[in-house]
Amino acid sequence: MIRFSESAPFSPISYSYEIDNILYKKKSQYQEIIVVENPYFGKIMLLDNVVQVTERDEFFYHEMLTHIAMHTHPNPKNIVVIGGGDGGTVREVLRHDCVERVYFIEIDKEVINTAKEYFPTIAGAVDDLRVLIKPMDGALFVKEVKDIDVLIVDSTDIIGFAESLFSDEFFRAVKGCLTKNGIFVTHTESLHFHKKMVIEMQHRLKGIFPIVDLYTTPLATYPGNWWAFAIASLSLNPRVYSRPCVSGTRYYDSEIHGQCFLTKGFYDKLINNRLDW
Amino acid sequence: MIRFSESAPFSPISYSYEIDNILYKKKSQYQEIIVVENPYFGKIMLLDNVVQVTERDEFFYHEMLTHIAMHTHPNPKNIVVIGGGDGGTVREVLRHDCVERVYFIEIDKEVINTAKEYFPTIAGAVDDLRVLIKPMDGALFVKEVKDIDVLIVDSTDIIGFAESLFSDEFFRAVKGCLTKNGIFVTHTESLHFHKKMVIEMQHRLKGIFPIVDLYTTPLATYPGNWWAFAIASLSLNPRVYSRPCVSGTRYYDSEIHGQCFLTKGFYDKLINNRLDW
């Protein structure tokens, strides 16, 4: 049996996958892009030997990253997606008919090209006329854009060249580019494996945004699995959706929206470091 | 770096752990028992090379296996725990002062002995005077006991010698030994990795019990992580707790009780196989 072992940072369990084929392997300007085939997950894309997306379970991550913020906002028109070169987040954003413009800021164009060739069900939406692809650093882009309703960071792990997307300077720039109902959402790794990082991000965002919260979803492939999303808003409470669920989702719905946030008691214990764990 | 790779059945991702030490290794009559030390999880017990319990995260599993059923019941006195030789489930059961008797049915006494020596914070409660240890097959025990308020199966994976604890014959015998408010709970593996099995158990329990439901919790170590618990009851709705949270829990509380069940929409789609995944 041929296997690969993932090199995810700070993972106390190493995950390895059987592979049937290596379909693609190329070093871009930024990272090594690999596409393999696995008997359970289907095609898998790796960046620098870390699993980014699999055909089977990608919808859990993409829907949960996207739809909490998008359904909280009553009428999101101008959206920024930073990272997410596979196109899954853009696909979910475009399920909302009110969307007029998606700035798709992926620094590595090779990731988009690879996804379009090997993951058409994920990347198919990036050619939509509402999508403006800009292959540049998201940390620079947020300084030059205005009037954004929802800004989504769909980056690689926090360590590495995505680090600039988790700095206070970046968070302040995000706040500056949002409208008064604007919402920002980003993944912050796993509550099981990276609890300190999850807590740190909550505290740093609270120093900048008036409303900061945390929701989770159990994923199959990202190490630690209990995946945490930080959501920050200028005025709207992200625990309350303002519109019925768009059509086409496979996991997200209004009930999931109501259930995915940490309970108030657990959240309080978590961010005040009163959890003995 | 010294590592071991787990041999979990039906796991499309193989998990491997760094180890500092092998503390114990012995073949019992039933299985090979190993205790290792890991820099993140602390001590880990393996049975036939499958991780059963780790010092760091065991409380998530033991609390969630135990306290939903125990808090649903208004006054549970007679409890059966089948399996769970590490003692964690018995420890959680005994947090309820109303408990008078715990029949602790672990087929392999060597597991209990190993836990008492290497995991005293987990196994410490098994010497409580209310606990009656019976080293026998749980499938036989349920045929000879009566008037049980809560019956908990804390077994190894469904495949292997725990198979008899997931048969219709066993489920019928469990029903027969419960009081009219009785509740039965068992783990049914991972929603991410063993969805068919999770669904099958729900349908089979529905053929025997009037009330059957499903709740989940994200675990750090069991493969697939999104761990599913089947709960079956003769009269009480397990979504509704009847008593305030006992003291001493680290994760479970009344809010978590209210949130851990699948949403009605997702549950309905799941068990009717209307999920495209």
Poorly predicted segments of chain A: none
Kindly name the structural category of chain A.
alpha/beta
Average predicted confidence as pLDDT of chain A:
96
Number of helices of chain A: 9
Most extensive contact = A-B, 41 and 41 residues
Tally of separate domains of chain A:
2
Strand arrangement within the widest β-sheet of chain A reads 9-8-7-10-11-13-12
Question: So what's the oligomer here?
Answer: homodimer
Give descriptors for this structure.
9 helices, seven-stranded mixed sheet, 277 residues, 2 domains, alpha/beta, Rossmann fold, four-stranded antiparallel sheet, 13 strands, Spermidine Synthase, Chain: A, domain 2, homodimer, globular
Task: Describe the overall structure.
- Chain A is of the alpha/beta class and 277 residues long.
- The first copy, chain A, has two domains: 3-54, Spermidine Synthase, Chain: A, domain 2; 58-271, Rossmann fold (3-Layer(aba) Sandwich), CATH 3.40.50.150.
- The first copy, chain A, is built from nine helices and 13 strands.
- A seven-stranded mixed beta sheet of chain A has the order 9-8-7-10-11-13-12, with helices on both faces. A four-stranded antiparallel beta sheet of chain A has the order 3-4-5-6, with helices on one face. In chain A, strands 1-2 form a two-stranded antiparallel ribbon.
- In chain A, β7, α2 (88-93) and β8 form a beta-alpha-beta unit.
- Chain A is globular.
- Chain A starts with a strand and ends in a 6-residue tail after the last helix.
- β2 of chain A pairs antiparallel with β2 of chain B.
